[in-house]
């Protein structure tokens, strides 16, 4: 009986069937994590680029002073219309506009004003339009949910209590005279 078990174990040891199962099981999670991180990084880059471009195009209309007056809602809708690939932009984009005085400089706040997804409505922190020759800072904060919270890149991104991550874009311009 012992000889039979010993022979069976020797045959099992010498067989090469299924020899790739162990390396496959060890390497597959690494490759899946790499693929998910690549997809996540691609979407973050695309969203940031689209937000930057939409903000720049919208600010161009403001600083050229084309005769129309912009308010918070109109500016937000123009940015969201130009940023077509940002899902739920109208609800998760928060704008902040500050007048800066280069002669009496005070540092603007470093943290961006983002939508608080836990609250039903987030009030504006500051939004004031400048007059001719005023130096203005416009900051847009867009919140989104990462594609895969289990990805390697997503685990390093700062998220709020609801699982949203923020992208911030800033533009500084001078209001041109009419």
UniProtKB/TrEMBL annotation:
Residues 18-60 form the TadE-like domain. The chain crosses the membrane at residues 21-39. Pfam families: TadE. InterPro entries: TadE-like_dom. Keywords: Membrane, Transmembrane, Transmembrane helix. This is Flp pilus assembly protein TadG. It comes from Salipiger mucosus DSM 16094.
């Amino acid at each position: 009986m012992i000889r039979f078990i010993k022979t069976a174990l020797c045959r099992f040891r010498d067989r090469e069937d299924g020899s790739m199962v162990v390396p496959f099981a060890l390497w597959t999670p690494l490759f899946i994590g790499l693929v998910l991180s690549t997809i996540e990084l691609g979407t973050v880059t695309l969203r940031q680029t689209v937000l930057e471009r939409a903000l720049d195009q919208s600010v161009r209309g403001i600083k050229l002073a084309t005769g129309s007056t912009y308010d918070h809602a109109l500016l937000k809708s123009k940015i969201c219309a130009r940023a077509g690939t940002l899902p739920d932009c109208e609800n998760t984009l928060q704008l902040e506009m500050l007048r800066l005085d280069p002669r009496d400089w005070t540092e603007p706040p470093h943290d961006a004003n983002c939508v608080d997804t836990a609250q039903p409505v987030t009030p504006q922190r500051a939004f004031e339009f400048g007059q001719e020759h005023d130096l203005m800072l416009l900051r847009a904060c867009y919140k989104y949910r990462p594609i895969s919270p289990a990805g390697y890149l997503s685990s390093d991104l700062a998220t709020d209590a609801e699982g949203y991550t923020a992208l911030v874009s800033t533009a500084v311009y001078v209001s041109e005279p009419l």
